[in-house]
Write a structure and sequence with these properties.
Layout: H1 15-26, E1 29-30, H2 42-53, H3 66-80, E2 90-93, H4 95-107, E3 113-118, H5 123-130, E4 134-139, E5 141-143, E6 146-148, H6 151-157, E7 162-168, H7 180-192, E8 196-200, E9 225-230, H8 231-234, E10 243-246, H9 249-262, H10 270-278, H11 282-306, E11 309-311, E12 318-322, H12 331-342, E13 344-345, E14 347-348, E15 362-366, H13 371-386
Parallel strand pairs: 1-13, 3-4, 3-7, 7-8, 8-9
Antiparallel strand pairs: 2-10, 5-6, 9-10, 11-12, 12-15, 14-15
Bound molecules: pyridoxal-5'-phosphate (PLP).
């Protein structure tokens, strides 16, 4: 008998583990998992070394070290004109993943409903299940205008049991940046139904077309929004697992109550280093977006040459592509065969849907890799066009 609790049984090994193992076994270029292959800013790395050598190796304070909480608040004022009190409205977490889990566990009773957009980052479904809550997915559909959703499907997803909307923009895996009118509808529904918004904005500094607007900046939303971000993405240090939550004190205090029993605290010496990184000049953040924009264009052009239909992302470091023009019908089969066919690993996005048919023909590539790695992947993928 499976000892695992019933609510977690639907969640097997993540597709990333399977595909990364396949990449190693076949010597493939791994564009499956989204981690950069270069290090973050040297000022941040040096500050972490100094913190370790300077003896900052014991438990930090529960909400996070004061200089990081101050830096998080200052950064949001600087970029988004959002004001948070570093004492009470900011909480440091073990990556955005813990922030998401702790927010859902803190704010949802069993049976409460969470509206989210599918495909979604894979921890969402598991965290909702752990809380005994119920997900109400709204489908993002790929088309000539990129990914869009049916506003009526969103309206219909809200009901008497809705407790939370969980919004990820810029969005993984589609690369969609939600538009002002889409955000306005989400904000209206949150207020009409008295619902809390949890916004996963880990890709806030990776926007290439249009602009990122935090939901919390819309009228009436700051007081009902838990905003989440992560150093892993903004400073290319995914292994550090330093994330944060900002929001009104009652919501942040609820999330802290859960976080303290999940990890208590995390990343003592990395926290002051992330404070340094958040204070870097605009040129760092502009440079990150500019470099990723070039990489997006490089990979999108290569994928189109190889014969895919490409859905050009407006943000993040992911691009999705339709396998139909290459004769593919099922992304899982296609991705399992791709290493043998041409030595490249991608991930099928159907595993991030409750309705997999909507994404059966779609696969995702990560472009947060050195140019020579992207060029090698593209050269290999061209073999598909020749086949
Ligand atoms: C949308 C989204 N949220 C959260 C995370 C996880 O962030 P962290 O590594 O800080 O836990 C990721 C990582 O891929 C992500 O894509």
């Amino acid at each position: 008998m499976d000892p695992l609790v019933a609510r977690m049984r639907p969640f097997g090994t993540t597709i990333f583990a399977e595909m990364s193992a396949l990449a190693v076994r076949t010597g493939s270029v791994n564009l499956g998992q989204g981690f950069p292959d270069t290090d973050g800013p040297p000022e941040m790395l040096e500050a972490a070394v100094a913190a370790i050598m300077g003896g900052r190796n014991q438990y930090p304070p529960g909400p996070g070290v004061p200089e990081l909480r101050r830096a998080i608040a200052a950064h949001q004022r600087r970029y988004w004109d959002l004001d948070y009190d570093p004492d009470g409205e900011v909480l440091v977490t073990a990556g955005a993943t813990e922030a998401i889990a702790a927010s859902i566990l803190a704010l949802c009773e069993a049976g409460d409903e969470v509206v989210c957009f599918e495909p979604y980052y894979d921890s969402y479904a598991a965290s909702i299940a752990l809380a005994g809550a119920v997900r109400r997915p709204v489908t993002l559909r790929a088309g000539h205008d990129g990914y869009t959703f049916d506003p009526d499907q969103l309206r219909a997803a809200f009901g008497p049991r809705t407790k939370m909307v969980l919004l990820n923009s810029p969005h993984n895996p589609t690369g969609k940046v939600f538009t002002p009118s889409e955000l306005a509808l989400i904000a209206l529904l949150c207020q009409q139904h008295d619902v809390v918004a949890v916004t996963d904005e880990v890709y806030e500094h990776m926007v290439f077309d249009g602009a990122h607007t935090p939901l919390a900046t819309l009228p009436g939303m700051r007081e009902r929004t838990v905003r989440i971000s992560s150093a892993g993405k903004s400073f290319s240090c995914t292994g550090w697992k330093v994330g944060w939550v900002s929001g009104p004190a009652p919501l942040v205090s609820a999330v802290l109550r859960v976080k303290q029993f999940l990890t208590y605290v995390n990343a003592g010496p990395q926290q002051p280093a992330v404070a340094v990184a958040l204070g870097l000049p605009d040129s760092y953040f502009d440079g990150l977006a500019a470099s990723l924009r070039d990489k997006r264009d490089r990979l999108c052009a290569g994928l189109a040459d190889a014969g895919f239909e490409v859905f050009r992302p407006e943000g993040t470091y992911f691009v999705t592509a339709d396998i139909t023009p290459l004769g593919g019908t099922d992304g899982v089969d296609f991705c399992r065969a791709l290493p043998d066919r041409c030595g490249v690993v991608a991930v099928p996005t159907q595993v991030f849907y409750d309705h997999p048919d909507a994404g059966r023909h779609l696969i995702r590539f990560a472009f947060c890799k050195r140019d020579e790695v992207l060029d090698e992947a593209v050269a290999r993928l061209r073999k598909l066009a020749a086949a």
